[in-house]
Amino acid sequence: MKIEILAYEIKHLLTRPLILASIIIFVVIGIYESYYLVPICFTLGVTLPAIVSTSSILFSTLYPLVVVYIAYTNYAKPKAEGALESVLATPVSRSEVFLSRMTSGTVIIFISVIAYTLAISFFIWYLFVGVVATEFQGLLLFILSSFLELAMLYWIFMAIGSISRTQGQYIIFSAIALAIFEGLSFLAGVFPGFSWLIYSFTPIGISQGINSVILSGFLSQPPLPFWISPIIWMALPPYLGVRHYTITDQP
Asked: Under 8 Å CB-to-CB from 200, ≥6 apart: which residues?
């Protein structure tokens, strides 16, 4: 994977107005929510990471739609889109094209999570310094779990985008996949006795698994077979995408 190709793909995504606007919008919403949550959480002795997590419900629920768009931009757009022109100008294999776009999207997601978390945390700390307890381990946990959850969703959507023949197919299949994952997450909350079994069938479950291991207050720990699921979500979509790019003439 060539560095210049990767740099171009990252720049290509960062210049997308919708991606930049989404980060700003979610930061504003998170600040607005946290501003009203802090007084309530203070009376309960809640720490900064807990407030950030509580203020991020909309971010966790709606930002996957932005992830769908990132995968759409990288994999489901027409070949005439500008991202391909630089690739064709440099000798590069089809697998390198796929991996560079996979990596660039993952980097954008990581930047988004970092920017969102730091903006919300600094706002709360600045206005309520000395009132809200700060736990950097908890903030790192929130960043890690949010990033892995969104990254795995992106890898699934990029696999869908790479095998979809039309943009319409990608939109339909991605919407169905996201609805299934969100529905399974909801069912896991409704049936706590089967939560880890249900979470095994959705990449959204990785955040719950990490939280249950590191944070206290969870009634049950995930069984060992549960951790096989995230490995599959991480490995299978990139493998399918690379295989598809290798055996077809799709750039």
From this structure: 225, 226, 228, 229
Q: Binning pLDDT at 50, 70 and 90, where does residue 85 land?
A: very low
Q: Which residue has the tokens 């776009």?
A: 101
Would you state the structure tokens that stand for residue 102, as one six-digit string? 């996979």
Vertex 229: Cα angle to 223 and 235 (nearest 5): 145
On whether the CB atoms of residues 62 and 126 are closer than 8 A, the answer is no
The residue among 133, 107, 105 whose CA lies nearest residue 121 is 133
CA 241-246-249 angle, to 5 degrees, is 105
Say if residues 154 and 107 touch (Cβ distance below 8 Å).
no
**How many domains does the chain fold into?**
1
**Half-sphere exposure in the Cβ direction for 100 (13 Å, CA):** 24
Asked if 154 contacts 177 with a C-beta cutoff of 8 angstroms, the reply is no
Its domain, for residue 143, covers 3-247
pTM, two decimals, is 0.84
Are the C-beta atoms of 126 and 48 separated by less than 8 Å? no
203 DSSP 8-state letter: T
Is there a contact between 160 and 71 (Cβ–Cβ < 8 Å)? Answer: yes
118-145 pLDDT per residue, tens: 888 888 777 766 555 566 777 888 888 8
